[in-house]
Write a structure and sequence with these properties.
single chain; 464 residues; Aldehyde Dehydrogenase, Chain A, domain 1; Aldehyde Dehydrogenase, Chain A, domain 2; 2 domains; 7-stranded mixed beta sheet; 16 helices; 40% helix; 20% strand; globular; binds adenosine-5'-diphosphate
Length: 464
Amino acid sequence: MSTAASAADAPVSTDLISMDPATGQEVGRVPRTPIEAIPKLVFAAHQAQRGWGALTHAQRAEVLRPAAARLKAEARRLGELASREMGKPLAEAVGEANYCADGFAAELDEIVAALADAVREDKRVTSILRHAPLGVCAAITPWNFPILMPHQSVLPALVAGNSVLLKPSEETTLVACEYARILNEFLPPGVLTPVFGDGAQGRALVLADVNLIVFTGSRETGKRILGDAGPGLKRVILELGGKDPLVVLEDADLDAAAAFAVRNSFRNAGQVCVSTERIYVDARIRGEFLRKMVEKTQALRQGDPRAEGVNVGPMVNARQKAKVMGQIDAAIAAGASVLAGGESREGNFVAPTILADVDHRMEIMREETFGPVACVQAFQSDDEAVRLANDTPFGLGAAVFGRDLDRAGAVAARIEAGMVGINQGCGGADGCPWVGAKESGYGFHTGPEGHRQFAQVRVISRVK
Ligand code: ADP
Protein backbone atom coordinates (compact mmCIF):
# COMPACT_ATOMS: atom_id res chain seq x y z
CA MET A 1 0.00 0.00 0.00
CA SER A 2 1.36 3.45 -0.84
CA THR A 3 2.03 5.96 1.92
CA ALA A 4 -0.61 8.28 0.46
CA ALA A 5 -3.24 5.56 0.60
CA SER A 6 -2.47 4.66 4.23
CA ALA A 7 -2.63 8.33 5.26
CA ALA A 8 -6.02 8.66 3.56
CA ASP A 9 -7.28 5.50 5.29
CA ALA A 10 -6.24 6.68 8.76
CA PRO A 11 -9.21 7.60 10.98
CA VAL A 12 -9.71 11.37 11.21
CA SER A 13 -9.52 12.55 14.82
CA THR A 14 -12.46 14.71 15.79
CA ASP A 15 -10.61 15.85 18.88
CA LEU A 16 -9.64 19.47 19.31
CA ILE A 17 -5.95 19.33 20.17
CA SER A 18 -4.39 22.18 22.12
CA MET A 19 -0.71 22.75 21.32
CA ASP A 20 1.92 24.64 23.31
CA PRO A 21 3.21 27.26 20.84
CA ALA A 22 6.54 27.54 22.71
CA THR A 23 7.41 23.84 22.56
CA GLY A 24 5.16 22.39 19.86
CA GLN A 25 3.94 19.75 22.32
CA GLU A 26 0.35 18.73 22.93
CA VAL A 27 -1.19 20.25 26.07
CA GLY A 28 -4.40 18.23 25.94
CA ARG A 29 -7.47 17.51 23.83
CA VAL A 30 -11.25 17.56 24.02
CA PRO A 31 -13.84 16.11 21.63
CA ARG A 32 -15.23 18.66 19.17
CA THR A 33 -18.92 19.37 19.63
CA PRO A 34 -20.66 17.83 16.58
CA ILE A 35 -22.24 20.54 14.43
CA GLU A 36 -25.55 18.66 14.35
CA ALA A 37 -25.64 18.68 18.17
CA ILE A 38 -25.57 22.49 18.39
CA PRO A 39 -29.28 23.22 17.72
CA LYS A 40 -30.13 20.65 20.42
CA LEU A 41 -27.77 22.31 22.89
CA VAL A 42 -29.40 25.65 22.13
CA PHE A 43 -32.84 24.14 22.66
CA ALA A 44 -31.71 22.77 26.04
CA ALA A 45 -30.28 26.20 26.92
CA HIS A 46 -33.70 27.78 26.23
CA GLN A 47 -35.30 25.32 28.62
CA ALA A 48 -32.71 25.98 31.34
CA GLN A 49 -33.13 29.73 30.83
CA ARG A 50 -36.77 29.67 31.96
CA GLY A 51 -35.98 28.94 35.59
CA TRP A 52 -32.78 30.97 35.59
CA GLY A 53 -34.50 33.97 34.02
CA ALA A 54 -37.24 33.84 36.66
CA LEU A 55 -34.76 34.75 39.43
CA THR A 56 -33.93 38.36 40.21
CA HIS A 57 -30.59 39.89 39.17
CA ALA A 58 -29.49 39.86 42.81
CA GLN A 59 -30.44 36.19 43.26
CA ARG A 60 -28.46 35.20 40.21
CA ALA A 61 -25.46 37.16 41.45
CA GLU A 62 -25.67 35.31 44.78
CA VAL A 63 -25.63 31.96 42.97
CA LEU A 64 -22.44 32.99 41.20
CA ARG A 65 -20.69 34.75 44.10
CA PRO A 66 -19.01 31.68 45.68
CA ALA A 67 -17.29 30.96 42.36
CA ALA A 68 -14.91 33.86 43.11
CA ALA A 69 -13.16 31.93 45.89
CA ARG A 70 -12.91 28.79 43.73
CA LEU A 71 -11.44 30.83 40.89
CA LYS A 72 -8.95 32.40 43.31
CA ALA A 73 -7.94 29.01 44.68
CA GLU A 74 -7.33 27.72 41.15
CA ALA A 75 -5.79 30.90 39.69
CA ARG A 76 -2.27 29.48 39.58
CA ARG A 77 -3.38 26.30 37.80
CA LEU A 78 -5.55 28.22 35.34
CA GLY A 79 -2.71 30.63 34.63
CA GLU A 80 -0.30 27.75 33.95
CA LEU A 81 -2.79 26.14 31.59
CA ALA A 82 -3.39 29.43 29.74
CA SER A 83 0.35 29.98 29.41
CA ARG A 84 0.87 26.50 28.00
CA GLU A 85 -2.04 26.77 25.58
CA MET A 86 -1.17 30.15 24.05
CA GLY A 87 2.34 31.12 25.15
CA LYS A 88 1.68 34.07 27.46
CA PRO A 89 4.41 34.61 30.10
CA LEU A 90 3.37 32.70 33.21
CA ALA A 91 3.23 35.70 35.55
CA GLU A 92 0.88 37.52 33.15
CA ALA A 93 -1.34 34.48 32.74
CA VAL A 94 -1.63 33.93 36.50
CA GLY A 95 -2.22 37.69 36.84
CA GLU A 96 -5.11 37.41 34.39
CA ALA A 97 -6.74 34.63 36.43
CA ASN A 98 -6.22 36.58 39.66
CA TYR A 99 -7.64 39.74 38.08
CA CYS A 100 -10.87 37.87 37.26
CA ALA A 101 -11.06 36.27 40.72
CA ASP A 102 -10.24 39.46 42.67
CA GLY A 103 -12.71 41.59 40.71
CA PHE A 104 -15.46 38.95 40.61
CA ALA A 105 -17.60 40.17 43.53
CA ALA A 106 -17.36 43.85 42.58
CA GLU A 107 -18.20 42.93 38.99
CA LEU A 108 -21.35 41.12 40.13
CA ASP A 109 -22.39 44.13 42.22
CA GLU A 110 -21.77 46.49 39.31
CA ILE A 111 -23.88 44.35 36.96
CA VAL A 112 -26.75 44.08 39.45
CA ALA A 113 -26.71 47.86 40.00
CA ALA A 114 -26.59 48.54 36.26
CA LEU A 115 -29.61 46.32 35.59
CA ALA A 116 -31.77 47.68 38.41
CA ASP A 117 -35.16 49.13 37.49
CA ALA A 118 -35.19 52.82 36.69
CA VAL A 119 -38.21 55.10 37.03
CA ARG A 120 -39.11 57.88 34.57
CA GLU A 121 -42.09 60.14 35.20
CA ASP A 122 -43.82 63.12 33.70
CA LYS A 123 -46.98 64.89 34.88
CA ARG A 124 -49.23 62.12 33.54
CA VAL A 125 -47.35 58.80 33.39
CA THR A 126 -45.01 56.77 35.59
CA SER A 127 -42.77 54.35 33.68
CA ILE A 128 -40.48 51.63 34.92
CA LEU A 129 -37.50 50.63 32.79
CA ARG A 130 -36.80 46.94 33.32
CA HIS A 131 -33.75 45.01 32.15
CA ALA A 132 -35.17 41.63 31.18
CA PRO A 133 -33.24 38.61 29.85
CA LEU A 134 -32.80 38.33 26.10
CA GLY A 135 -32.86 34.52 26.15
CA VAL A 136 -29.91 32.40 25.00
CA CYS A 137 -26.54 34.03 24.51
CA ALA A 138 -23.72 32.66 22.35
CA ALA A 139 -20.38 33.88 23.74
CA ILE A 140 -17.62 33.41 21.16
CA THR A 141 -14.19 34.29 22.50
CA PRO A 142 -10.59 34.62 21.27
CA TRP A 143 -7.33 33.14 22.59
CA ASN A 144 -5.30 36.21 23.55
CA PHE A 145 -6.94 36.69 26.99
CA PRO A 146 -8.24 33.16 27.37
CA ILE A 147 -9.66 33.61 30.90
CA LEU A 148 -10.63 37.30 30.90
CA MET A 149 -12.57 37.21 27.62
CA PRO A 150 -14.87 34.33 28.62
CA HIS A 151 -15.23 35.98 32.05
CA GLN A 152 -16.25 39.39 30.65
CA SER A 153 -18.70 37.86 28.18
CA VAL A 154 -20.28 35.24 30.41
CA LEU A 155 -20.77 37.07 33.71
CA PRO A 156 -23.02 39.95 32.54
CA ALA A 157 -24.92 37.59 30.24
CA LEU A 158 -25.70 35.26 33.15
CA VAL A 159 -26.61 37.92 35.70
CA ALA A 160 -28.93 39.49 33.11
CA GLY A 161 -30.81 36.17 33.15
CA ASN A 162 -29.66 34.63 29.91
CA SER A 163 -28.37 31.11 29.55
CA VAL A 164 -25.03 30.94 27.77
CA LEU A 165 -23.27 28.71 25.28
CA LEU A 166 -19.56 29.51 25.51
CA LYS A 167 -17.53 28.75 22.38
CA PRO A 168 -13.92 29.56 23.27
CA SER A 169 -11.14 29.80 20.71
CA GLU A 170 -9.87 26.51 19.38
CA GLU A 171 -6.40 27.58 20.64
CA THR A 172 -7.44 27.86 24.30
CA THR A 173 -10.25 25.39 24.80
CA LEU A 174 -8.83 23.72 27.90
CA VAL A 175 -8.55 26.81 30.09
CA ALA A 176 -11.98 28.10 29.04
CA CYS A 177 -13.37 24.67 29.85
CA GLU A 178 -11.86 24.96 33.35
CA TYR A 179 -13.38 28.43 33.80
CA ALA A 180 -16.82 27.08 32.80
CA ARG A 181 -16.36 24.07 35.10
CA ILE A 182 -15.77 26.36 38.08
CA LEU A 183 -18.90 28.41 37.38
CA ASN A 184 -20.87 25.23 36.77
CA GLU A 185 -20.12 24.02 40.29
CA PHE A 186 -22.63 26.68 41.37
CA LEU A 187 -24.99 27.20 38.43
CA PRO A 188 -28.12 25.15 37.77
CA PRO A 189 -27.63 22.53 35.01
CA GLY A 190 -27.84 23.75 31.41
CA VAL A 191 -27.40 27.46 32.16
CA LEU A 192 -23.75 27.57 31.00
CA THR A 193 -22.72 25.07 28.33
CA PRO A 194 -19.29 24.95 26.70
CA VAL A 195 -19.12 24.24 22.97
CA PHE A 196 -15.80 23.03 21.58
CA GLY A 197 -14.59 23.66 18.07
CA ASP A 198 -13.39 26.26 15.62
CA GLY A 199 -15.15 28.66 13.27
CA ALA A 200 -17.52 25.93 12.09
CA GLN A 201 -18.95 25.44 15.59
CA GLY A 202 -18.97 29.23 16.09
CA ARG A 203 -20.94 29.74 12.91
CA ALA A 204 -23.38 26.94 13.73
CA LEU A 205 -24.08 28.67 17.05
CA VAL A 206 -24.70 32.02 15.38
CA LEU A 207 -27.11 30.38 12.93
CA ALA A 208 -28.93 28.45 15.68
CA ASP A 209 -31.84 29.84 17.68
CA VAL A 210 -29.79 32.18 19.88
CA ASN A 211 -30.94 35.68 20.88
CA LEU A 212 -27.64 37.42 21.59
CA ILE A 213 -24.15 36.91 20.18
CA VAL A 214 -21.24 38.31 22.16
CA PHE A 215 -18.09 38.10 20.12
CA THR A 216 -14.51 39.23 20.61
CA GLY A 217 -12.12 38.57 17.75
CA SER A 218 -11.02 39.71 14.34
CA ARG A 219 -12.82 42.31 12.23
CA GLU A 220 -13.25 39.82 9.37
CA THR A 221 -14.96 37.23 11.57
CA GLY A 222 -17.04 39.99 13.17
CA LYS A 223 -18.36 40.97 9.73
CA ARG A 224 -19.23 37.35 8.96
CA ILE A 225 -21.11 37.04 12.25
CA LEU A 226 -23.02 40.27 11.61
CA GLY A 227 -24.05 38.90 8.19
CA ASP A 228 -25.17 35.58 9.67
CA ALA A 229 -27.05 37.29 12.50
CA GLY A 230 -28.79 39.77 10.18
CA PRO A 231 -31.68 37.69 8.80
CA GLY A 232 -32.83 36.83 12.35
CA LEU A 233 -32.17 40.40 13.63
CA LYS A 234 -30.23 38.79 16.47
CA ARG A 235 -28.61 41.12 18.95
CA VAL A 236 -24.82 41.30 18.55
CA ILE A 237 -22.00 42.76 20.59
CA LEU A 238 -18.81 42.71 18.52
CA GLU A 239 -15.49 43.72 20.07
CA LEU A 240 -13.08 43.69 17.15
CA GLY A 241 -9.47 44.43 16.30
CA GLY A 242 -7.52 47.64 16.26
CA LYS A 243 -4.53 49.41 14.77
CA ASP A 244 -3.90 51.65 17.75
CA PRO A 245 -1.83 54.79 17.28
CA LEU A 246 0.44 56.46 19.84
CA VAL A 247 1.09 60.16 19.19
CA VAL A 248 4.23 61.52 20.85
CA LEU A 249 4.09 65.32 20.92
CA GLU A 250 7.16 67.54 20.95
CA ASP A 251 6.93 68.28 24.70
CA ALA A 252 6.30 64.68 25.82
CA ASP A 253 8.19 63.04 28.66
CA LEU A 254 10.23 60.84 26.34
CA ASP A 255 11.21 58.27 28.97
CA ALA A 256 7.55 57.73 29.87
CA ALA A 257 6.46 57.69 26.22
CA ALA A 258 9.18 55.21 25.19
CA ALA A 259 8.46 52.97 28.21
CA PHE A 260 4.76 52.97 27.33
CA ALA A 261 5.49 52.28 23.64
CA VAL A 262 7.67 49.27 24.46
CA ARG A 263 5.29 47.89 27.07
CA ASN A 264 2.19 48.34 24.96
CA SER A 265 3.68 47.14 21.67
CA PHE A 266 5.30 43.98 23.02
CA ARG A 267 3.01 42.85 25.88
CA ASN A 268 1.57 39.42 25.15
CA ALA A 269 3.91 39.46 22.11
CA GLY A 270 1.71 42.20 20.66
CA GLN A 271 -1.31 39.90 20.58
CA VAL A 272 -3.61 42.43 22.23
CA CYS A 273 -6.42 44.28 20.45
CA VAL A 274 -5.22 47.58 21.99
CA SER A 275 -1.52 47.02 21.29
CA THR A 276 0.31 50.11 20.09
CA GLU A 277 0.98 49.25 16.45
CA ARG A 278 1.59 52.71 14.94
CA ILE A 279 3.71 55.40 16.56
CA TYR A 280 3.69 58.98 15.26
CA VAL A 281 6.43 61.08 16.74
CA ASP A 282 7.16 64.78 16.31
CA ALA A 283 10.09 65.00 13.86
CA ARG A 284 12.03 67.23 16.29
CA ILE A 285 12.27 64.52 18.95
CA ARG A 286 12.26 61.45 16.71
CA GLY A 287 15.95 60.57 17.20
CA GLU A 288 15.92 60.79 20.97
CA PHE A 289 12.62 58.92 21.28
CA LEU A 290 13.86 56.09 19.05
CA ARG A 291 17.14 55.79 20.97
CA LYS A 292 15.22 55.34 24.21
CA MET A 293 12.79 52.89 22.63
CA VAL A 294 15.56 50.73 21.16
CA GLU A 295 17.42 50.67 24.49
CA LYS A 296 14.30 49.52 26.36
CA THR A 297 13.47 46.93 23.70
CA GLN A 298 16.95 45.43 23.97
CA ALA A 299 16.34 44.90 27.70
CA LEU A 300 13.35 42.61 27.00
CA ARG A 301 13.78 38.87 27.42
CA GLN A 302 12.10 36.57 24.94
CA GLY A 303 11.88 32.81 25.40
CA ASP A 304 10.16 30.04 27.33
CA PRO A 305 7.04 31.71 28.80
CA ARG A 306 7.44 29.68 31.99
CA ALA A 307 11.04 30.82 32.60
CA GLU A 308 11.71 33.44 35.27
CA GLY A 309 12.11 36.96 33.87
CA VAL A 310 10.84 36.21 30.35
CA ASN A 311 8.46 38.96 29.24
CA VAL A 312 7.89 38.14 25.56
CA GLY A 313 6.65 34.71 24.47
CA PRO A 314 5.91 33.18 21.07
CA MET A 315 3.13 33.86 18.58
CA VAL A 316 0.09 31.70 19.29
CA ASN A 317 0.66 29.54 16.21
CA ALA A 318 2.60 29.21 12.95
CA ARG A 319 -0.17 30.93 10.96
CA GLN A 320 0.01 34.05 13.11
CA LYS A 321 3.81 34.05 12.89
CA ALA A 322 3.67 33.81 9.09
CA LYS A 323 1.22 36.73 8.95
CA VAL A 324 3.42 38.95 11.14
CA MET A 325 6.64 38.03 9.31
CA GLY A 326 4.91 38.64 5.97
CA GLN A 327 4.04 42.22 7.00
CA ILE A 328 7.56 42.84 8.36
CA ASP A 329 9.28 41.48 5.24
CA ALA A 330 7.02 43.45 2.90
CA ALA A 331 7.66 46.68 4.85
CA ILE A 332 11.44 46.12 4.74
CA ALA A 333 11.26 45.43 1.00
CA ALA A 334 9.35 48.71 0.59
CA GLY A 335 12.04 50.72 2.41
CA ALA A 336 11.37 50.44 6.18
CA SER A 337 14.50 50.43 8.37
CA VAL A 338 14.89 47.87 11.14
CA LEU A 339 15.98 49.36 14.48
CA ALA A 340 15.39 46.20 16.52
CA GLY A 341 14.45 42.61 15.75
CA GLY A 342 13.02 42.23 12.26
CA GLU A 343 13.89 38.59 12.06
CA SER A 344 12.04 35.35 12.57
CA ARG A 345 13.32 33.10 15.35
CA GLU A 346 13.06 29.36 15.78
CA GLY A 347 9.60 27.88 16.36
CA ASN A 348 6.76 30.37 16.66
CA PHE A 349 8.91 33.24 17.95
CA VAL A 350 9.13 36.69 16.32
CA ALA A 351 11.74 39.04 17.79
CA PRO A 352 10.38 42.31 19.25
CA THR A 353 10.71 44.58 16.23
CA ILE A 354 10.94 48.33 15.73
CA LEU A 355 10.53 49.61 12.16
CA ALA A 356 11.19 53.24 11.18
CA ASP A 357 10.82 55.01 7.82
CA VAL A 358 7.39 53.49 7.32
CA ASP A 359 4.40 55.05 5.56
CA HIS A 360 0.75 54.33 4.94
CA ARG A 361 1.33 52.66 1.59
CA MET A 362 2.67 49.70 3.58
CA GLU A 363 0.23 47.02 4.72
CA ILE A 364 1.87 47.07 8.16
CA MET A 365 0.54 50.63 8.68
CA ARG A 366 -3.00 49.76 7.58
CA GLU A 367 -3.88 46.19 8.60
CA GLU A 368 -3.83 44.78 12.12
CA THR A 369 -0.52 43.01 12.83
CA PHE A 370 -1.21 41.32 16.19
CA GLY A 371 2.49 40.72 16.76
CA PRO A 372 5.49 42.28 18.54
CA VAL A 373 6.03 45.08 16.04
CA ALA A 374 6.13 48.85 16.61
CA CYS A 375 6.22 51.06 13.50
CA VAL A 376 7.44 54.64 13.89
CA GLN A 377 6.66 57.51 11.52
CA ALA A 378 7.60 61.18 12.02
CA PHE A 379 5.15 64.08 11.72
CA GLN A 380 5.64 67.83 11.22
CA SER A 381 2.52 69.23 12.92
CA ASP A 382 -0.23 68.17 15.33
CA ASP A 383 -2.69 68.34 12.42
CA GLU A 384 -0.61 65.86 10.47
CA ALA A 385 -0.42 63.54 13.50
CA VAL A 386 -4.22 63.55 13.80
CA ARG A 387 -4.65 62.95 10.07
CA LEU A 388 -2.27 59.96 10.16
CA ALA A 389 -3.79 58.52 13.36
CA ASN A 390 -7.26 58.67 11.75
CA ASP A 391 -6.17 57.21 8.42
CA THR A 392 -7.51 53.73 9.23
CA PRO A 393 -10.84 51.91 9.26
CA PHE A 394 -10.07 50.85 12.86
CA GLY A 395 -10.87 52.95 15.93
CA LEU A 396 -10.35 50.97 19.11
CA GLY A 397 -7.76 52.60 21.39
CA ALA A 398 -5.19 55.38 21.07
CA ALA A 399 -2.71 57.24 23.26
CA VAL A 400 -1.28 60.76 23.20
CA PHE A 401 1.82 61.73 25.18
CA GLY A 402 2.57 65.41 25.86
CA ARG A 403 3.26 67.61 28.90
CA ASP A 404 0.90 70.45 27.89
CA LEU A 405 -2.38 68.75 28.80
CA ASP A 406 -4.54 71.22 26.87
CA ARG A 407 -2.62 70.52 23.69
CA ALA A 408 -2.54 66.74 24.29
CA GLY A 409 -6.25 66.85 25.16
CA ALA A 410 -7.05 68.71 21.94
CA VAL A 411 -5.20 66.07 19.89
CA ALA A 412 -6.89 63.24 21.86
CA ALA A 413 -10.33 64.74 21.21
CA ARG A 414 -9.72 64.67 17.45
CA ILE A 415 -8.61 61.02 17.28
CA GLU A 416 -11.44 58.80 16.06
CA ALA A 417 -11.13 55.99 18.61
CA GLY A 418 -13.44 54.58 21.25
CA MET A 419 -10.86 54.98 24.01
CA VAL A 420 -7.99 57.48 24.11
CA GLY A 421 -5.45 57.73 26.93
CA ILE A 422 -3.45 60.88 27.67
CA ASN A 423 0.01 59.99 29.03
CA GLN A 424 -1.36 56.50 29.72
CA GLY A 425 -2.94 53.53 28.00
CA CYS A 426 -6.47 53.68 26.65
CA GLY A 427 -8.23 51.84 29.51
CA GLY A 428 -10.58 54.10 31.46
CA ALA A 429 -11.38 54.36 35.16
CA ASP A 430 -13.37 51.59 36.86
CA GLY A 431 -16.88 51.56 35.42
CA CYS A 432 -15.90 52.78 31.93
CA PRO A 433 -16.99 50.69 28.97
CA TRP A 434 -14.63 48.88 26.61
CA VAL A 435 -15.68 50.45 23.37
CA GLY A 436 -14.46 50.62 19.81
CA ALA A 437 -15.29 53.23 17.17
CA LYS A 438 -15.46 52.76 13.39
CA GLU A 439 -14.79 49.13 12.37
CA SER A 440 -13.36 48.16 15.76
CA GLY A 441 -16.68 47.63 17.47
CA TYR A 442 -20.39 47.16 17.04
CA GLY A 443 -22.09 47.39 20.39
CA PHE A 444 -19.80 47.33 23.42
CA HIS A 445 -19.42 45.82 26.86
CA THR A 446 -18.06 46.47 30.39
CA GLY A 447 -19.18 49.14 32.85
CA PRO A 448 -22.85 49.90 33.59
CA GLU A 449 -23.61 50.99 30.00
CA GLY A 450 -21.93 47.84 28.69
CA HIS A 451 -23.76 45.49 31.06
CA ARG A 452 -27.11 46.82 29.86
CA GLN A 453 -26.32 45.60 26.33
CA PHE A 454 -26.85 42.05 27.63
CA ALA A 455 -30.48 42.73 28.56
CA GLN A 456 -33.73 43.61 26.82
CA VAL A 457 -34.94 47.02 27.98
CA ARG A 458 -38.68 47.02 28.62
CA VAL A 459 -40.79 50.04 29.49
CA ILE A 460 -43.86 49.44 31.67
CA SER A 461 -46.05 52.54 32.06
CA ARG A 462 -49.24 53.53 33.83
CA VAL A 463 -51.25 56.68 34.24
CA LYS A 464 -50.67 58.35 37.62
P1 ADP B 1 -8.42 34.23 15.31
O1 ADP B 1 -8.50 33.31 14.13
O2 ADP B 1 -7.31 35.21 15.23
O3 ADP B 1 -8.50 33.51 16.63
P2 ADP B 1 -11.17 34.91 14.92
O4 ADP B 1 -11.85 36.21 14.98
O5 ADP B 1 -11.25 34.15 13.63
O6 ADP B 1 -9.68 35.18 15.31
O7 ADP B 1 -11.68 33.95 16.09
C1 ADP B 1 -12.28 34.38 17.26
C2 ADP B 1 -13.35 33.37 17.65
O8 ADP B 1 -14.33 33.31 16.63
C3 ADP B 1 -12.84 31.94 17.82
O9 ADP B 1 -13.53 31.36 18.90
C4 ADP B 1 -13.22 31.31 16.50
O10 ADP B 1 -13.35 29.89 16.57
C5 ADP B 1 -14.56 31.96 16.22
N1 ADP B 1 -14.99 31.98 14.80
C6 ADP B 1 -14.22 31.95 13.69
N2 ADP B 1 -14.99 32.05 12.58
C7 ADP B 1 -16.29 32.16 13.00
C8 ADP B 1 -17.55 32.33 12.34
N3 ADP B 1 -17.65 32.41 11.01
N4 ADP B 1 -18.67 32.41 13.10
C9 ADP B 1 -18.59 32.38 14.44
N5 ADP B 1 -17.44 32.22 15.11
C10 ADP B 1 -16.28 32.12 14.42
